[in-house]
Write a structure and sequence with these properties.
globular, alpha/beta, Rossmann fold, ATP-binding, binds adenosine-5'-triphosphate, 33% helix, 10 strands, ATP binding, nucleotide-binding, 28% strand
Length: 236
């Protein structure tokens, strides 16, 4: 299987006015195509920092990172944006949909940034929204649908461009158990259909459903667990 993520000895320091926080202290990891990896660990251990670096929303202080074979060191800002747009879909805890746009327009954004033709965008958006069960709400605005539905739309936006990697940061954090379970089930289904997913979660019920769990502590990988078979796993 193709290697989608390859990180070598990643360090990240945040420089404040007085103090420096060494958030990541030498992380090396690989994610292969088709994997579903959960990143876990206590608050402040560096999970979100790792995901933002993987998502090219921030860069490492030291170390190397290749996404889908592309070396990201030394990329200029616009090149990073292009790589992010072509290869990565991001799902945030707080959905991050634009309220002034319809559901359809929100999901269309990544493809419009790529400059895709209108008919191509339309077909892909409809397909993505149907995949997440939101085909019937295309003309609604985010504030007219529930939180669980907003997260489904955010997932559609992440997958519409068929990225190599979908990054998911606490996808169920703002949802009740029922909607959280449904969103998790959807992510598992998308993974079965081929999506490569890296997810940060506090919830051990959900991380236990991933192929592989990577546990962080104080900016380092302290444990890694592989689940033997993914068959028939479901949210209880
Ligand atoms: N922009 C920033 N500036 C300074 N320090 C930061 C910044 N972002 C994160 N940190 C620090 O880096 C460390 C790791 O933070 P990070 O948000 O990655 O942890 P986390 O595991 O995702 O935590 P949580 O589970 O609470 O979201 C923490 O000590 C945090 O205070």
């Amino acid at each position: 299987m193709k290697t989608i993520v390859s990180m070598r000895d990643i360090h990240k320091s945040y420089l404040g006015q007085q103090i420096e926080t060494h958030a990541l202290r030498g992380i090396s990891l690989e994610v292969k195509q088709g994997e579903f990896v959960a990143i876990t660990g206590p608050s402040g251990c560096g999970k979100s920092t790792l995901l933002t670096i993987m998502g090219l929303l921030d860069s490492a202080t030291e170390g190397s990172y290749e996404i889908a074979g592309i070396d990201t060191r030394g990329l200029k800002v616009d090149q990073r944006t292009t790589v992010r747009n072509q290869h990565i879909g991001y799902v945030f805890q707080s959905f991050n949909l634009i309220d002034s746009l319809t559901v359809f327009e929100n999901v269309a954004l990544p493809l419009e940034h790529r400059g895709e033709r209108k008919e191509v965008v339309k077909a892909a958006v409809i397909e993505a929204l149907e995949k997440v069960g939101m085909g019937h709400r295309m003309q609604y605005q985010p504030n007219q649908i529930s939180g669980g539905q907003q997260q489904r739309v955010a997932i559609a936006r992440a997958l519409v461009g068929k990225p190599d990697l979908i990054l998911v940061d606490e996808p169920t954090g703002n949802l009740d158990t029922k909607n959280g379970d449904a969103v998790m089930q959807l992510l598992l289904e998308l993974n079965k259909q081929g999506a490569t997913i890296v997810m940060v979660t506090h919830d051990s019920r959900y991380s236990g459903l991933a192929h592989r769990q990577i546990q962080l502590l104080d900016g380092k990988v302290v444990a890694e667990q592989q689940v033997k078979s993914q068959t028939d796993k479901e949210v209880a």
